[in-house]
Design brief:
Chain B: This is Dimethyl sulfoxide reductase anchor subunit. The complex is a heterotrimer of chains A (about 1000), B (about 300) and C (about 240). With about 1000 residues, chain A is α/β, with parallel strands linked by helices. Chain C has about 240 residues and is an alpha+beta fold. The longest helix of chain C is centred in the C-terminal third of the chain and has 11 residues, at about 235-245. Classes of the chains: A alpha/beta (about 1000), B mainly alpha (about 300), C alpha+beta (about 240).
Chain lengths: ~1000, ~300, ~240
């Protein structure tokens, strides 16, 4: 018996097959070698956003089994609880069967089935009229969508700026916080150096994007004995296995990080060399209060930021590799006072208001713990440095004989992101990483290509000039560098329906999907005609303030016309949002379609090299459904959108697969980077290869390129890497990426608030802009906490999705729902005792926005000021193919009902979206509640309750029994 | 443990049936109870009827009753299999004895031997039933030295009370049988009290710490693997409130022991027809009481798997 | 035959690392998915979309809060058949349906012989047996006996589905009867324990207890930080560092 080289993540000697895998002669008649599959199709999972490679075993024409692809760079053979349950998602009774046209009142669920031709003509007629008159009256928003390079481009070609995916209510604080600071971000766009890190800090991470890579990585750390520190109010999941669990009070992470920074600085434990080489720490900032350029960088004639050469005692180009820049002090250049960025950093964070003692109580963390963590960070970063014996050359041509690293790594996700102070908290963490010199170094946090990108990346959001029958000048989403880039009109009114890139949310890199329904309903800033959505449950768990959101979707004017006139929705399942659509376009499952996981949006790269992947149909649809992307492409052709039709007006692409292969965004650059060129030998850039999809399929559904050893670290300044990145189109030019401790773009907004520049905020917005567009990260209390009576609402309330359902619509899944079909509110024992509550009690959970009823479970592993629950377990009766007695709609509850979608009115009476003021990120976790035991007769069932949806035509009731798999056995035994 | 009625009835009925069979076999076979067609028919009918009904009821607990015959095969290791074998084997001498004694009014010699063998078979079968429970280590309340004697005592008790009622009913009451049923009921009462006392006080070494391998401190269940109840919880996670249990223990004591004792005692002093009535009443009440006792036997038994669920 | 083999050639089993398990349920559904079409197919789900949902699962993950004087921790705890050396679930079986394989020690059920008396589930202290009410027979973990020797799978895939799936590498598989095997060495190194050893079932599967936090990591030795003493405090230090 011989073994090949072990492959995959689980290949330790204690995880391998037996040395001799021949079946022993037991004589018990057990068939130890049943046939498993007739064929194996290798594709990409879509049970969540992790994009793992899967081997789908097909037997007797059905999906027998799905396991992880050992060669795949994301999951290396492992598979999560969702991935293995994909079968049940595919065979879900909640699946839609055919296009639907609403017949009853909106929200009733009364539909009739129509043919695709009718569906297309309804949509085409409606959308053509919009495009001919005012394209922005189409709002096109997608949810858990991984094809944004297509959907965004479609919107752009249509001519509407009103496009975004769901990032605004998900991750934009992290994306913007990262991209404006280090040119990359957490989420799935970077990762700790799992093989080398010795100290790993995990901020606010539950199961999330990158779920299998994180789990594989944690397994490595545990096996190696590296220390894992989790900062999270809840001690579940990853946090359960941390060596140190810091049960922080929600929304205070930034404060905690500033205390770490304060202590590190005080002790002289920052990496000055790293700061000088890779950041703008030495860049000079003008200090002329009242001047139009106060707070901007001192620049030379060519616009290069300047530093002060402490040896030559002269200003010098900050990027000059030969400079000896000062980091401290105050200088006068051309009669104007200026200081290095680092002086401002030191001034701010050395302040005693950031000392451990000053923040301990607010963070709920003892000052001694903060000091201990700082000491550990410093010890590992500065005493346990590592060096890889690999020579590399930096951007300036300096050769380094080894790659040095400070093995402290960090990762942060939704716990940071989903607060109204999340942008600055995220920046704070990046600041900490940079001060320790641990970004993209061995043992540190590493970029995944195409990151790092310029800080911020280049393209600006398009949409300033919306004209009938005219594409936008670029893509709807982008990065602003100052007020001039905002999408506001002369009066300061937002151009976009979601108010992204307006004074409400200047750095809204992902749009604000969570504001669309309210704004469209209120006609603020204007009325729209059609809301087109894809794969997002906006009438339930993807919206804040669900009850009112539902009312807005169904609200009509005096004439009986809906205030949101027309809603087109595409989904594969009968979700809570489908009944609110006028036209339903049924999508396929992930096993029936083509997809591309592209470097143009969210690829499958890892830190050692870029990669992308496809999905391809592994089973045929058994119903009249079509993949949304193909539908969108056909709609584009029927509308005659530029790029979707040939010169003769005929459709340019036969569906998504054709588009994936033949579309070129810029010459040579298409959705897929692998096997380009006529002969399929080019990567990144190259001519269209008609065999490209087959090459992907032959390779297991993905393409991946491994960097050479010298390209793997210091990518922000690594000559070899930067050259590669330019060639691949990741960055416009092979120039170093400079980390921005101090954000000049933010200062430009502040200056506008002070009355400088062409584009200035309306009077009422000035102080808000001045406060929150601080060029250095700072901490402020989350908005709801600052607004409510804390005596009355003493508790923080959080949600997290269980690992087995994260990003997966699991309640329809016969297997996953068994694991969690009722959610409890987890309450700390002490807190419950203080409130006279016992385990299993039913309580009202009340916020300023309303109340919801659920059952509690007492725990110790939670911050005592915090209660939390599993999110999106509560379901509305009549949805998701569930029976009326399902626990989800009787005992499970949805916390969204009591999360406000707006802030309390400010002094001017204005209510903003319940979002971060910088990015517009939805502030889900700002919620404050109180809990009280409900009356005896109220116990046992959740409230509020909603009317049951009608079932779509030809929907069969869910079966009473599921014997999935019996047919494989029967067929197997029949052939024996 | 879930007190499934099929099993509660099975053990109670066969216990009483085998008790009665053993007594009839010995006393009838040896001629202490003179052969009488109707007495014999009803007596043996009752004994074998209870046994058969019990065994039939027990198959109601099976997922695949049509395969029940397979249960006779593993007598070398399985008490359940031994019970099956013993119960069936017992029917042979019991049948022979019954036919001879009832229909042919024969006693002595091979009829006595058949009766004796039936009695031995009955005792053995009751022992195997008791051992099914007594051998189960995961259930501390069963895996004790009280279980097997308990099964034997309760079988003798319900059997003798039935026999007494039968004899009294047919006007051939025997003082020794009356005395015996009274004494064995008192013994049963005492045994049950001792069993409860033992169970309530026993220190079970298995706890959530040993179940999870997490040493020291407390181990508290946070979340079940699945939020709804599964087979394990339905079958073995049965819980009875302490208050409810105490009430049922009282009912058991009154109906299975105290009331029968009083009724049987009354039979000493009451004139014949009334004595017969109270004896029949005693047997009936006791049987009902034993159903409650057996229900509690299951309901109060705690399986170690419940430790995983924090129950 | 429900008498136990006097000796098994191998003692195949799992080793589960409680220090590493994050409770993600990957092993749970991987097991369900493989086995519902495998040797004991199907793993029936009753009322799969309703209020009384109850399915057959061979592997279930609990979570606990373990509190000692050292503090508290959350422990995720996968529970499945331990393939005991002296499993009473086998010996109590009246029909011979339950048996322990002499070759590899796997405890199996011959479904065709099972009468569904449920006694084996009573005899198992660990709750490893799952009754399929629809089929009327008992089912249980097979240690993926239809994977680990399966000629129709690539050799590298011949491990139990739960082990192949586990994203954190918290599950291990091998011959625990061979002291030189990788799993045995892992158990020895990490102080693997038996569940309910007092029951005397001698489980084959072992659990690796969570490691004490104090035993971990280089950073433990970190000395407390002292403020820089240079003139001018931190900024003075910065200047001094740069001029060096």
């Amino acid at each position: 018996m011989s073994h090949g080289a072990p492959r995959g993540a689980n290949c330790a000697p204690s995880q391998r097959p037996l040395a001799d895998t021949r079946a022993p002669d037991e004589g018990d008649g057990v068939d130890t070698s049943p046939s498993v599959s007739d064929r194996i199709a290798k594709t990409t999972c879509y049970m969540c956003a992790c994009r793992c490679g899967i081997d789908v075993h097909i037997k007797d024409g059905k999906v027998r089994y799905i396991n992880g692809n050992k060669d795949h760079p994301v999951n290396r053979g492992v598979i999560c609880g969702k991935g293995s349950s994909g079968i049940m998602q595919h065979y879900s009774p909640a699946r839609l069967k055919k296009p639907l046209l609403r017949t009853g009142p909106r929200g009733s669920g009364e539909f009739r089935e129509i043919e695709w031709e009718e569906a297309f003509s309804i949509a085409t007629e409606r959308l053509s009229a919009i495009r001919r008159t005012d394209p922005k009256k189409l709002a096109f928003f997608t949810g858990r969508d991984q094809s944004q390079s297509l959907t965004g481009w479609w919107a752009s070609q249509f001519g509407t700026p009103n496009f975004a995916a769901h990032g605004g209510f998900c991750s934009v604080n992290m994306a913007a916080g990262g991209l404006y600071t280090i040119g990359g971000s957490f989420w799935e766009f970077g990762e700790p150096d799992w093989d080398n890190t010795k100290y790993f800090m995990l901020f606010g991470v539950a199961e999330d994007h990158d779920s299998n890579p994180i789990k594989i990585g944690l397994g490595k750390l545990k096996a190696r004995g590296a220390k894992v520190v989790s900062i999270n109010p809840c001690r579940t999941g990853y946090n359960a296995i941390a060596d140190d669990w810091i049960g922080i009070r929600p929304g205070t992470d930034g404060l905690f990080v500033f205390a770490l920074i304060h202590e590190l600085m005080k002790a002289g434990r920052v990496d000055l060399d790293y700061l000088l080489r890779y950041t703008n720490a030495h860049t000079l900032v003008i200090q002329e209060p009242g001047a139009a350029d106060d707070g901007l960088f001192v620049r030379d004639d060519k616009g290069n930021p300047l530093a002060w050469d402490r040896v030559a005692k002269t200003p010098i180009n900050a990027a000059d590799p030969n400079a000896k820049p000062a980091l401290t002090g105050s200088f006068t250049i051309d009669g104007r006072r200026c200081v290095p960025v680092f002086q401002l950093v030191a001034d701010r964070y050395l302040d005693e208001s950031y000392s451990p003692d000053a923040v301990a109580e607010r963070c709920g963390i003892p000052a001694d713990t903060i000091r201990r963590i700082t000491a550990e960070l410093a010890h590992v970063a500065f005493e346990q440095t590592i060096e890889l014996p690999v020579a590399w050359t930096d951007w300036a041509g300096r050769r380094h004989e080894t790659i040095k690293g400070r093995p402290v790594s960090m990762h942060a996700m939704r716990g940071i992101s989903a607060h109204s102070n999340g942008f600055h908290s995220c920046r704070a963490i990046h600041l900490l990483q940079v001060l320790l010199g641990t970004v993209d170094v061995p043992g540190g946090f590493r970029f995944k290509p195409p990151y790092p990108r310029p800080t911020p990346p280049g393209p600006k959001p398009a949409g300033k000039n919306v004209q009938p029958m005219t594409p936008l000048e670029g893509m709807p989403l982008g990065f602003v560098c100052g007020p001039d880039d905002l999408l506001v009109d002369e009066a300061g009114t937002p151009i976009r329906i979601d108010k992204a890139y307006s004074w409400d949310a200047p750095l809204a890199a992902h749009g604000l999907m969570h504001t669309v329904i309210r704004n469209a309903w209120a006609g603020d800033p204007y009325r729209i005609d059609t809301l087109m959505m894809y794969m997002s449950n906006m009438a339930w768990n993807s919206s804040m303030n669900t009850v009112e959101t539902i009312a807005m979707l169904t609200d009509a004017d005096e004439a009986g016309n809906y205030k949101i006139p027309f809603i087109i929705y595409s989904d594969a399942y009968y979700s809570e949002t489908v009944p609110f659509a006028d036209l339903v376009l049924p999508d396929t499952t992930y096993l029936e379609r083509h997809d591309c996981i592209s470097l143009l949006d969210r690829p499958i790269s890892h830190a050692d090299g870029p990669g992308d992947a496809i999905r391809h149909p592994v089973v045929e649809p058994d119903r009249d459904v079509r993949p949304f992307q193909s539908v969108l492409i056909e709609l584009g052709a029927r509308l005659g959108l530029p790029g979707f039709v040939d010169d003769d007006g005929s459709a340019k692409y036969r569906g998504y697969a054709d588009y994936i292969v033949n579309h070129e965004r810029t010459p040579g650059i298409g959705p897929l980077a692998g096997w380009r060129g006529k002969d399929g030998t080019a990567i990144g850039s190259g001519a269209v290869n008609p065999d490209q999809l087959q090459r992907y399929i032959d390779n297991g559904g993905f393409w991946h390129h491994d960097f050479s050893a010298d390209q793997r670290y210091y990518k922000m300044a690594n000559r070899s890497y930067l050259g590669f990145a330019e060639q691949m189109g990741f960055i416009p030019k092979a120039e170093p990426i400079v980390f921005q401790l101090y954000s000049e773009p933010m200062q430009r907004f502040r200056l506008a608030a002070r009355g400088h520049g062409r584009v200035q905020p309306p009077e009422a917005e000035r102080s808000r802009i001045e406060t929150y567009m601080d060029p250095l990260p700072f901490w402020y209390a989350p908005f709801e906490e600052a607004a409510v009576d804390l005596q009355k609402y003493p508790l923080h309330a959080l949600t997290q999705r269980p690992m087995h359902m994260y990003h997966s619509w699991g309640s329809q899944n016969a297997w996953l729902r068994q694991i969690t079909s009722q959610n409890r509110l987890f309450v700390h024992h002490q807190t419950a005792a203080g409130l006279g509550l016992a385990d299993d009690d039913w309580v009202w959970i009340e916020s300023i926005n309303g109340r919801v009823k659920g059952q509690i479970k007492l725990v110790d592993g939670v911050n005592a000021d915090t209660v939390w629950t599993w999110n999106a377990i509560g379901k509305r009766r009549g949805s998701w193919g569930l029976k009326d007695d399902a626990a989800e709609s009787n005992r499970g509850f949805l916390l969204n009902h009591i999360i406000g979608d707006q802030t309390s009115a400010d002094a001017n009476g204005k209510r903003y979206s319940n979002s971060d003021p910088v990015t517009g990120q939805a502030a889900w976790f700002d919620l404050r509640v109180r809990i009280a035991k409900c009356m005896a007769q109220e116990a046992g069932f959740t409230e509020p309750q909603f009317e049951r949806f009608h079932q779509p035509p030809r929907f069969e009731p869910a079966p009473d029994k599921l014997s999935f798999g019996v047919e494989f056995r029967r067929n197997r035994e029949a052939t024996e | 443990m879930h007190p499934a009625f099929s099993v509660v009835f099975f053990t109670t009925a066969t216990g009483a049936g085998y008790g009665l069979l053993a007594l009839l076999g010995v006393l009838g076979g040896l001629g202490f109870i003179p052969p009488d067609f109707w007495l014999g028919l009803i007596g043996m009918g009752l004994a074998l009827g209870l046994i058969a009904a019990g065994l039939l009821s027990s198959t109601g607990h099976l997922g695949r009753p049509e395969r029940a015959w397979r249960a006779f095969s593993q007598w070398r290791s399985s008490w359940l299999s031994r019970e099956g074998v013993a119960s069936v084997l017992t029917f042979i001498p019991a049948g022979l004895f019954g036919i001879s004694w009832v229909f042919f009014a024969r006693t002595g010699s091979w009829v006595a031997i058949a009766g004796l063998l039936a009695a031995i078979g009955a005792v053995v079968t009751v022992c195997t039933t008791g051992m099914i429970y007594a051998s189960l280590k995961p259930i501390a309340q069963w895996h004790s030295r009280y279980t097997l004697p308990g099964y034997l005592i309760f079988s003798a008790m319900t059997g003798s009370t039935l026999l007494n009622a039968l004899l009294q009913g047919f006007g051939v009451g025997m003082r020794t049988v009356l005395v015996a049923s009274l004494l064995v009921t008192l013994l049963g009462w005492g045994w049950k009290l001792a069993t409860w006392r033992y169970n309530d006080r026993q220190e079970i070494p298995t706890n959530a710490n040993t179940a999870t391998g997490l040493a020291g401190g407390t181990v508290r269940s946070l979340e079940w693997p699945h939020t709804e109840e599964n087979y394990l919880l339905k079958e073995m996670g049965f819980r009875i409130a302490r208050k409810h249990g105490a009430k049922l223990r009282l009912i058991t004591q009154v109906s299975a022991f105290a009331l029968p004792v009083l009724l049987l005692a009354a039979a000493f002093v009451l004139p014949k027809p009334f004595a017969a009535v109270v004896c029949v009443l005693a047997a009936t009440v006791q049987f009902a009481g034993m159903l409650v006792e057996r229900w509690l036997f299951f309901a109060e038994a705690k399986h170690t798997v419940t430790l995983y669920y924090g129950r | 035959m429900t008498c136990l083999p006097a000796h098994t050639d191998k003692r195949l089993g799992l080793v589960i690392d409680l220090d590493t398990c994050v409770g993600c349920q990957a092993c749970v559904t991987a097991c369900k998915e493989w086995n519902t079409g495998g040797h004991m197919a199907p793993l029936t789900d009753i009322d799969p979309y309703g209020g009384n949902v109850d399915g057959v699962w061979f592997n279930r993950v609990h979570s606990y809060e373990h509190t000692t004087e050292m503090g508290g921790r959350t422990v995720n705890f996968p529970r499945s058949c331990l393939h005991c050396e002296t499993p009473a679930c086998v010996t109590v079986c009246p029909t011979g349906a339950s048996y322990k394989r002499a070759s590899d020690g796997i405890v199996l059920i011959d479904e065709d012989k099972c009468i569904g008396c449920k006694l084996c589930s009573w005899a198992c202290p660990y709750g490893a047996r799952e009754f399929d009410t629809d089929v009327g027979v008992m089912k249980k973990c097979t240690l993926c006996v239809d994977r680990i020797y399966n000629d129709n799978l690539a050799e590298e895939d011949r491990v139990p589905a739960c082990v192949a799936a586990c994203p954190t590498s918290a599950r291990h598989f091998g011959d625990l009867g061979d002291p030189s095997s990788a799993v045995s060495q892992l158990v020895a190194e990490r102080g693997g324990v038996d569940l309910m050893p007092e029951m005397g079932y001698h489980p084959t599967n072992k659990y690796l207890p969570p490691r004490a936090h104090t035993q971990r990591a280089a950073s433990v030795a970190a000395p407390a930080l002292e403020p820089v003493r240079a003139e001018g405090g931190f900024l003075g230090w910065v200047d001094r560092m740069l001029s060096n």
